[in-house]
Design brief:
With 252 residues, the chain is mainly alpha-helical. It is 68% helix and 4% strand. A hairpin with a 4-residue loop joins strand 1 and strand 2.
Length: 252
């Protein structure tokens, strides 16, 4: 027992003799190894230790935000990301992470405001699609349809797909087909059944295996028979996790 206690004390003494850089390097190696083994908790602790050793390293906040995001800990990712964007408003890569985190936290208005900022800088149809789904959730149907029409008219949307995570499984869908499906749902909300059917049919025409659009078209056809079920949409049945950011090891 005495030998064991002596060993522990010796270890603490050795750690205490490490220079700040050496200690930082040790934590950096722990962080990289933890990432390799997908041990996000150990990687997070290592990052916090690195911050304590070198508080001037603001870039470590980036890694921490990305790490929390990778682990779907959206509250922490959003809070750290907001701090980064406040310090540097040009960090659109982190703003996108914040927007996605807010979506998953149900902060619909706040996420929409972030995507509007992103779209103001980069006219990406990806941002426009996210805006349309959030506008739908806020029942801003006119704005939603206007956004969807822009997507449908944009040639870039022909090259992109959206991954729709359903209650059971997921489905990758061409963006234009997804846009027609949401447009059909807006029409249903406004009791425009014929317009809804046209949009759902268009979605299925573009993507014959589109499960949501098929289900929604079936609901429209059954509505006259008194079926009161609500249309299914990726805006209500999926969790958005798409972002262009990735988790990387910080520089020494």
């Amino acid at each position: 027992m005495k030998k064991f206690t002596s060993t522990i004390l010796l270890a603490f003494i050795c750690i205490g003799l490490l220079s700040a850089q050496d200690a930082f390097d040790v934590q950096s190696r722990i962080y990289k190894t933890a990432l390799k083994n997908y041990d996000l908790q150990a990687a997070t602790i290592a990052l916090y230790n690195m911050q304590a050793l070198k508080p001037e390293r603001a870039d470590l906040n980036d890694s921490l935000a990305l790490l929390y995001f990778a682990g779907e800990r959206y509250a922490q990712a959003y809070l750290i990301g907001e701090g980064i964007v406040t310090a540097d408003p040009k960090r659109n890569d982190i703003l996108e992470l914040v927007a996605v985190s807010k979506q998953n936290l149900g902060m619909v208005k706040e996420a929409l405001a972030d995507y509007e900022k992103l779209y103001g800088v980069d006219k990406s149809v990806f941002y426009l699609y996210q805006m349309s789904t959030l506008q739908y959730q806020l029942k801003r149907y006119g704005e939603c349809v206007a956004s969807l029409d822009q997507i449908i008219a944009n040639a870039d949307a022909d090259k992109q797909k959206v991954n729709i995570r359903l209650q059971q499984g997921s489905q990758e869908v061409p963006m234009k087909a997804a846009a027609y499906n949401v447009k059909g749902i807006c029409a249903m909300e406004l009791n425009q059944e014929e317009a809804a059917k046209q949009n759902f049919n268009k979605a299925i025409e573009l993507f014959p295996d589109f499960a949501l659009a098929k289900g929604n078209l079936d609901l429209v056809n059954k509505k006259k028979a008194g079926d009161s079920k609500q249309p299914a949409s990726e805006t209500t049945n999926t969790k958005t996790t798409t972002t262009k950011t990735t988790t990387t090891a910080p520089k020494k």
